[in-house]
Every structure is written in structure tokens, then in C-alpha cells.
């Protein structure tokens, strides 16, 4: 075989080998490309999204590549949803457009974000998320629950106003309506649903805050701890005993053996006290029957006029003994507070004053939290600290307690300062009194209890009615 033949044969064999190798390479490549979707599917089935994405990126068929990119995102979103990565899952589902499956996944991720916020106490975020979900699952109910929990949170933080607004907006959800009513009553001192809600809704947040501060100040004051008669003074001690000084011609100061006293009051010449078991005791002048209280039961408050004693029963009715000039009280019901003075009795019923005698009645005595009365006039206190009375000075503000005497009515402001309005002439100077916690106005003398429990009596002391210097009530 000559050299040319060998060269030709070598070239032929080389060409054949090259062609065979090329065919093999092309065949393998085609086979690999053909099997890549299957490998992507297998990777996705294993949850290996990263490998599936790498394989997808190698697809040369653009339409097929786009399909698998979407498939990878769906799988990644589902995995993140299963792992609790709800924010990331929602973002992936959102990137998939408006397809039904993507929309359902997005809503589910946001729903679980809402549940997460609700359980974590992020009630504002939870409500917003559930609101955005519309009717998905039980989102509307959970939105209400989030707002209900937010209202409770606000109340615990002392934000009564916003708590009330949220409860009221929830309508008949759970006990929201009852809670709204309770807060409305707390804000404005009314028990009637319509009027309480009407008043509360008309107030600003600042007005509500002011009212609640005054309410707290009122409730912190001792109730019926000191009182004055014509010529005597009586008070209740912290341990339930009683003390009295002044004229004792009818035995009105014979209170040394009283125990378990929770309230005390004075008529002209008698003294009465409510005990902690709901019974009442009385000593002093009794010719009008003003001390006939032995049979009283279920009493929650007592007060007195000159020749009569009154008790407020736990059912909101009023019982009376003594001078027979108080027929009107027999029909009073749902009373929450009583106040007597001279020849008159006043009571509160859902913020409205009931007054025993025509001369003391006034259409202005509405929307009250307290009332005081004496012959011929009554003075009311509103939740905003203003005083209702034709003669009330306009500069009285932030008043938290009242007392009505024969020649003057007194007001106590939240800072413990005493204000006085005298009808005729001038009375004692009360400007030096500080940190007063309770007060009582009489005909010729006045008594005050200070923050340290001392009792200061000012005015006429002809019978020793102002000899309270050694008293320490608490």
C-alpha cells in the first residue's frame, strides 16, 4: 500500500470519527434538553426549588422556560407559606398575577399574617389585614375580634374615649354594646342608653379625659364622713366609730357606743348613721319620729333634714321618717343618690334631680353627678365640674363635691380648695383651707375634713360645735 492510499484512508477514518463524535454530542445534547423538564419536575417534587430554577434557566424554549419559572415561584410560595414565612409567600403570590391559584395563595398568606398579628397583640394590623381580605374565610368576624381586643387594650391603658368609640362601632358583636354603654355611663354619669351614648358621642377626647379625671377625684373622696346640725357636729372615724361635739340637749351627741358606721348625717337636733350591715341608728330629738329607724333594712345611704331622716334602699327607693312633709318621695324609684337639708330632700335618678318641694325645683337640674339641697334651693354638679344653680358663680371650675347650707352653699374643687357662695352677708373666710377632702355646710357653722384626717370647724361656736381640734378621722 503506497503512501497516498494510506493518507486517503487516514483522512477518511478521521472524518468518519469526527462525524460520529459530532452526532454523539448532538444526540446527547438533544437527549439532555429533552429530559430537562422532567428533571425540573423531579426537583420541584423534592422541594429543591433552587435546582429547579437553575435547570429552568437553561431551557432554550422561551415559552417553556416562562412556564417553569411560574411553576418554581408557585412551589417556592407554597413552601414559604408552610414554613410560616407569610410576608415572603404573599410577595411571591402577588408576583404571579391575578390567576385564581395565585389569588387564593395571596389571600391565605395575608389571612395567616392577620392571625399572627392578632395572636401577637398587633390588633390594628390584624384588623387592617382582615378588612382587606373581604369575605375570605371568617375574616369579617376576625376583624371585629381584633377591634374588640383593641378596645379592651385601650381601656386597660386608660384610654376610655377611644375604647368607647371602638366598642360602640362594633354594635352587637359579643358584649360590645354593653361595654359601650358602661363606658358611656362612666364618662357622663348616665344610666339611660340613649342619653348616655348621645352625650358621650358629643364629647371630644380632651373633654372625656377631663371628665374622667374629675370622676376619679370625686370617687376618691370619703362619702358622708362629716355633717353638722343646728348646734352640733358629728363625724365617722376610719375604724367605724363616731364622734360628736356641741349642743347635746337632746342627746344628739351620744354616739360614743356606735360601731361599724359607714355614713353619718345630722338633722337640726338629731344624728343618724348607716352601719355596714345596711341598718341605721339614730339619737337625739325624736318628737317628729325622726329617730324611728330601728326597722330599716337594706339601706345603702342616709341623709337628714332638720326634722326627718331618709334612707336609700338597695332597690333605688327612698324611706323616710320624721316630719310628715315629704309625700313626694314615696313615688321615687331608681334613685342612686340622696341629699337632705333643712326642709328639703333631693335625689338623683339617671342624672336628673328629684326635689321634694316645689321651691327648690329647677329644669336646669339635669345631667348631674351630684346634688345638694336646702330650703328653697338646690344646687347640682355636672360631670365636667360645673355647678348648676341660678346663683352659682361662673368662675367655679373643676368642682367635685357640694354642700348646701341655710345661708351658703359650698363647693370643693379637685385641688382641695373650698369655694363658698353666701346669700346674705359674709360668712367665715375659707381661703386658708387646703387639701380638703370633705365638707358640710350648716346654718351658722361649717365643717371640713383635710387630707390628714383632721376636722376643722368654722363659724358660731356658742355650744362647742366647732371644738373638733383633737379629732383625727383617719
Description:
The chain is α+β, with helices and mostly antiparallel strands and 474 residues long. 38% of the residues lie in helices and 24% in strands. It contains 11 helices and 21 strands. Helix 1 packs across helix 2, helix 6 packs antiparallel against helix 7 (139-156) and helix 7 runs antiparallel to helix 8 (160-169). The model is unreliable at 21-34 (pLDDT under 50).
Q: Please estimate the helix content.
A: 25-40%
Shape: rod-shaped
- Indicate the low-confidence ranges by residue numbers: 21-34
Number of strands: 21
Structural class of the secondary elements? alpha+beta
Topology (elements, then pairings):
Blueprint: H1 3-46, H2 49-57, H3 62-83, H4 86-95, H5 100-119, H6 123-132, H7 139-156, H8 160-169, H9 176-188, H10 193-201, H11 205-219, E1 226-228, E2 232-236, E3 242-246, E4 261-266, E5 270-275, E6 280-284, E7 299-305, E8 308-313, E9 318-322, E10 337-341, E11 344-349, E12 352-355, E13 368-374, E14 377-382, E15 387-388, E16 399-404, E17 408-413, E18 418-422, E19 436-441, E20 445-450, E21 455-459
Helix pairs in contact: 1-2, 2-3, 3-4, 3-5, 4-5, 5-6, 6-7, 7-8, 8-9, 9-10
Amino acid at each position: 500500500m503506497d503512501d497516498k492510499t494510506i493518507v486517503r484512508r487516514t483522512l477518511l477514518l478521521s472524518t468518519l470519527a469526527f462525524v460520529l463524535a459530532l452526532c454523539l454530542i448532538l444526540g446527547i445534547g438533544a437527549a439532555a434538553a429533552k429530559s430537562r423538564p422532567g428533571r425540573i419536575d423531579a426537583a420541584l417534587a423534592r422541594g429543591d426549588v433552587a435546582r429547579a430554577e437553575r435547570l429552568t434557566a437553561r431551557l432554550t424554549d422561551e415559552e417553556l422556560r416562562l412556564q417553569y419559572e411560574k411553576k418554581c415561584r408557585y412551589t417556592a410560595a407554597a413552601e414559604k407559606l408552610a414554613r410560616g414565612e407569610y410576608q415572603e409567600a404573599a410577595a411571591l403570590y402577588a408576583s404571579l398575577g391575578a390567576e385564581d391559584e395565585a389569588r387564593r395563595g395571596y389571600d391565605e398568606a395575608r389571612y395567616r399574617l392577620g392571625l399572627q398579628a392578632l395572636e401577637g397583640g398587633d390588633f390594628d394590623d390584624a384588623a387592617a389585614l382582615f378588612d382587606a381580605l373581604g369575605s375570605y374565610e371568617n375574616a369579617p368576624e376576625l376583624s371585629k375580634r381584633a377591634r374588640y381586643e383593641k378596645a379592651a387594650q385601650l381601656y386597660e391603658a386608660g384610654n376610655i374615649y377611644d375604647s368607647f368609640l371602638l366598642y360602640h362601632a362594633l354594635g352587637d358583636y359579643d358584649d360590645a354594646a354593653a361595654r359601650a354603654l358602661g363606658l358611656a355611663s362612666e364618662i357622663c354619669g348616665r344610666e339611660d342608653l340613649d342619653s348616655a351614648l348621645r352625650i358621650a358621642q358629643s364629647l371630644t377626647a380632651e373633654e372625656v379625659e377631663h371628665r374622667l379625671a374629675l370622676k376619679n377625684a370625686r370617687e376618691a373622696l370619703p362619702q358622708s364622713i362629716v355633717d353638722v346640725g343646728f348646734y352640733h357636729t358629728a363625724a365617722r372615724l376610719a375604724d367605724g366609730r363616731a364622734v360628736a361635739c356641741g349642743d347635746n340637749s337632746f342627746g344628739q351627741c351620744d354616739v360614743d357606743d356606735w360601731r361599724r358606721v359607714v355614713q353619718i348625717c345630722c338633722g337640726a337636733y338629731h344624728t343618724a348613721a348607716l352601719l355596714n350591715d345596711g341598718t341605721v341608728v339614730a339619737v337625739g330629738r325624736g318628737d317628729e319620729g325622726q329617730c324611728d329607724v330601728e326597722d330599716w333594712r337594706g339601706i345603702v345611704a342616709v341623709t337628714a333634714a332638720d326634722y326627718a331622716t331618709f334612707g336609700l334602699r338597695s332597690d333605688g327607693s327612698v324611706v323616710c321618717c320624721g316630719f310628715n312633709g315629704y309625700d313626694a318621695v314615696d313615688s321615687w324609684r331608681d334613685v342612686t343618690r340622696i341629699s337632705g337639708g333643712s326642709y328639703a330632700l333631693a335625689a338623683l335618678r339617671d342624672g336628673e334631680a328629684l326635689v321634694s318641694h316645689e321651691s327648690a325645683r329647677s329644669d336646669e337640674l339635669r345631667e348631674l353627678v351630684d346634688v345638694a339641697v336646702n330650703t328653697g334651693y338646690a344646687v347640682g354638679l355636672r360631670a365636667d365640674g360645673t355647678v348648676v344653680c341660678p346663683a352659682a358663680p361662673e368662675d367655679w371650675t373643676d368642682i367635685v363635691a357640694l354642700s348646701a347650707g341655710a345661708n351658703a352653699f359650698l363647693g370643693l374643687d379637685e385641688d382641695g380648695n373650698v369655694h363658698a357662695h353666701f346669700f346674705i352677708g359674709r360668712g367665715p373666710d375659707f381661703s386658708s383651707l387646703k387639701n380638703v377632702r370633705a365638707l358640710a355646710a350648716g346654718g351658722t357653722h361649717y365643717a371640713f375634713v383635710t387630707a390628714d384626717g383632721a376636722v376643722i370647724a368654722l363659724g358660731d361656736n356658742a355650744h362647742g360645735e366647732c371644738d373638733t381640734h383633737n379629732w383625727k378621722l383617719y
